[in-house]
Amino acid sequence: MTGSIHFTVFSRLILLVFVCSVSSLHVGAQTDSSLAFFPLQPNDLWQYRHHYTPCCCNYEISSYFTVRVAGDTVLRDGLDYKVLETNSPQLISTRYLRVDTATANVYEFSGDTSVGDYLVDSLRATVGSSFRSTLPNYGGAIMCERIDTATVAGIRTMVKLFAGGGGIFYRLAYGLGLTQIDTMVFQCTTWDSRSDDLCYARIGGREYGTIVGVSNQPEIIPGSFTIEQNYPNPFNPTTTIKYELPKAAHVILTVFDILGREVSVLVNDRRSAGVYEIKFDGSNLASGVYFYRLQAEDFIQSKRLLILK
Q1: Last residue of a domain, which of 209, 240, 275?
Q2: Is 176 inside any structural domain?
Q3: Window from 66-70, 87-91, 232-236 with minimum mean pLDDT
Q4: pLDDT at position 294
Q5: How far apart are CA 72 and CA 146, in angstroms?
Q6: What is the DSSP code string of 187-239?
Q7: Does the pLDDT of residue 13 top 80, yes or no?
Q8: 269-273 LR contacts (CB < 8 Å, sep 24+)
Q9: Residue 218: inside a domain, yes or no?
Q10: In this structure, are 176 and 299 located in the same domain?
Q11: pTM for the predicted model, two decimal places
């Protein structure tokens, strides 16, 4: 449950940042070039790979999610908003965003009549400039730290790098939008690391990068509890362990040495139904045979892995 809550909070941060995306690579007709960081054409779509490294652990959880412009609507404040849908293994959500073309500011509709819509980004940000969200109690200022060029999804383009309060760092690419976001969350006396990297974008019908066919999307539910053989195997120093859950369950995934002594707890938390991949780092272990065991409800299964250094 904790992981799902963290992902929900994290997805909200992503959508607050996401509004700095592009409207198209072909934006010459726009009167304000900063609007090129904001695509809101119907059916524009972005796919990201989400990486999560829990505190005090030596493994990484990864999954994929998409953000799509599903259409537009007029809300009760009388303003026109674009409808953005986020689809991830843990969350399906909808947000309502609009851009003020006079100021190049971006707003999100809160649903709270006492707040209305609130500022989430400024598309005209320059190096050293900063802005604050108008959402009550929302963190500190967000600053544009650098503007550079980079190759993203196969194209060479301008990028803006931002840093915000609460350990948020992100990058916007002209013509592609949000291409990377990193967050640091303090947990367990240390920091959790979360990041998202753009895999694919469809902007105005044009495609960039490579879309990933993902088996852990919410609509694809495994038929049984399963744990697969790690890969690669043998390995040095990291390997990936994949497991499947047909329904939500408390999951314990543990690594033991050949004498049955516990050497690492990879997962000890409640997980939603889906397919999961865990990266295990054996850097601190000696070469040899080890075993990993998955426990979920009445399901218990172990497999062997081999570290060769």
Answers
A1: 209
A2: yes
A3: 87-91
A4: 96
A5: 33
A6: ETTEEEEEEEEEEEEEETTEEEE-----TTSTT---SS-EEPPPBSSSBSSEE
A7: no
A8: 269/1, 269/2, 269/3, 270/1, 270/2, 270/3, 270/4, 271/3, 271/245, 272/4, 272/89, 272/90, 272/245, 272/248, 273/221, 273/222, 273/245, 273/246, 273/247, 273/248
A9: no
A10: no
A11: 0.57
Same domain, 168 and 241: no
Residues 259 and 166 in one domain: no
In a domain, 146, yes or no: yes
Picking from 209, 212, 219, 193, the residue whose alpha carbon sits closest to that of residue 279 is 193
pLDDT tens digit sequence for 135-172:
655 667 889 999 999 988 888 999 988 888 667 888 88
Residue 227 has a pLDDT of 93
Domain CATH for 242: 2.60.40.1930
Choose one of 209, 238, 260: the last residue of a domain.
209
Q: How many domains does the chain have?
A: 2
**Is pLDDT at 48 greater than 60 in this prediction?**
yes
Residues 132 and 243 in one domain: no
Q: Structural domain of residue 250, as residue ranges?
A: 226-307
Domain co-membership, 272 together with 195? no
Q: Count of residues for the chain?
A: 309
Q: Are residues 85 and 192 in the same domain?
A: yes
Please report the pLDDT score of residue 191 as a whole number: 57
- pLDDT (tens digit per residue) in 287-309: 999 999 999 999 999 999 999 98
- Residue whose tokens read 């045979």: 289
Do 146 and 280 lie in a common domain?
no
